[in-house]
Amino acid sequence: MSILRDDVLAELEAQAIELPSWAFGNSGTRFKVFGTAGTPRDPYEKIADAAQVNRYTALAPTVALHIPWDKVPDYADLRRHAESLGVKLGTINSNTFQEDAYKFGSLTHEDPKVRRQAIDHHLECIDIMDETGSRDLKIWLADGSNYPGQADIRGRQDRLHESLQEIYARLGDEQRLVLEYKFFEPAFYHTDVPDWGTSYAQTAALGEKAMVCLDTGHHAPGTNIEFIVMQLLRLGKLGSFDFNSRFYADDDLIVGAADPYQLFRIVFEVIRGGGLNNPDVAFMLDQCHNVEDKIPGQIRSVLNVQEMTARALLVDHEALRAAQLSHDVLEANRVFMDAFQTDVRPALAEWRESRGLPADPMRAYLDSGYFERIADERVGGVQASWGA
Ligand code: PSV
Ligand code: MN
Ligand code: MN
């Protein structure tokens, strides 16, 4: 008998992880962007690559777009293209960090003309959402300053609120805004949305259609991220995740690669807080693959999330609760670690096969010949303009 009970399998079957279109483009550091064969030349090809991940894993039914990186003349056509490949278009990410006008801020800028430009960009993103059928507008701001005294940090919060209000007012009934925080970079002294508290305060001031986006790479080293997950779920304000992993700062490496135990702890709190497969919480990857192949990098990522979810679903809640109530510290920790240390890979492979999926999605993709085909067909790929 499988170690994965039916209730666990039912949860795993419903799991969906959104892929970022930019993960399929070439990316790198400020030192060098290494090109790879077969890199997509336009958003259509990025979506085709993302569909491969879903094809072999059944875990990635949606693809997030970044505007203007994924600008196309006809979004309804892009939507049809995605749907013909078995995926849908997901979150629309805005971009106010690559234009000269935004050197000293966007939605927080002192100059009303620059704020207008930034607000209009978000309104255009919502127009696009209407066509793509997307629910979420994700806003990450590079706004901040480098030196104490450089900026009126209080006035910027007020202007941020006003700008967000105008964007919020344009959202349709089924649409949402998720505000992502990040503690530093590209600004090194202060950032206007640096932490979950600021994102919470700003989104709470807007209303129910505004939620917090938690990017796992956007915290100071040592931060207890699962505590933040727990708190935001308690408050009903956790809108989405950007998953990735990091050793140092915002490394955007493969989720679960640096610290699988942290991923397990995060997913455990998601389950505990009723967030797993709750439509109000979106799970997205925000990664780039600088040196590894991109489609396999994304396949590995979604499988890592699936594995840690399966392990977190195995925690014996009754035994854990009993140990907590009797203050049996070591037993509580043993119950927790027992689930984390369970190897679920053979059971997952067996379950995949029973659903008509390849037992080993990575092998199946590598053997499919897709990479060789795109490497032949596509010459001169686009670079995912990774500015931050
Ligand atoms: C910049 O840090 C960033 O990685 C944010 O996490 C956004 O989600 C992403 O870029 C795309 O704009
Ligand atoms: Mn992010
Ligand atoms: Mn980031």
CATH homologous superfamily (4th level) name:
Divalent-metal-dependent TIM barrel enzymes
Q: How far is it from the N-terminal to the C-terminal residue, by CA?
A: 47 Å
**Which runs of at least 5 residues are low in confidence (pLDDT < 50)?**
none
The CATH topology turns out to be: TIM Barrel
Gyration radius, in Å:
21 Å
Order of helices and strands: HEHEHEHEEHEEHEHEHEHHHHHH
Q: What sort of overall outline do the alpha carbons produce when their principal axes are compared?
A: globular
Number of helices: 14
- Strand runs, count: 10
The CATH class label is: Alpha Beta
Secondary-structure-derived class: alpha/beta
User: What composes the largest sheet?
Assistant: 8 strands, parallel
The protein's oligomeric status is single chain
Total domain count: 1
Question: What's the architecture in CATH terms?
Answer: Alpha-Beta Barrel
Mean pLDDT: 97
Q: Helix coverage percent of residues?
A: 40-55%
Strand percentage, roughly? 5-15%
GO molecular function: L-rhamnose isomerase activity; manganese ion binding
Protein name: L-rhamnose isomerase
Pfam families: RhaA (PF06134)
Organism: Agromyces archimandritae
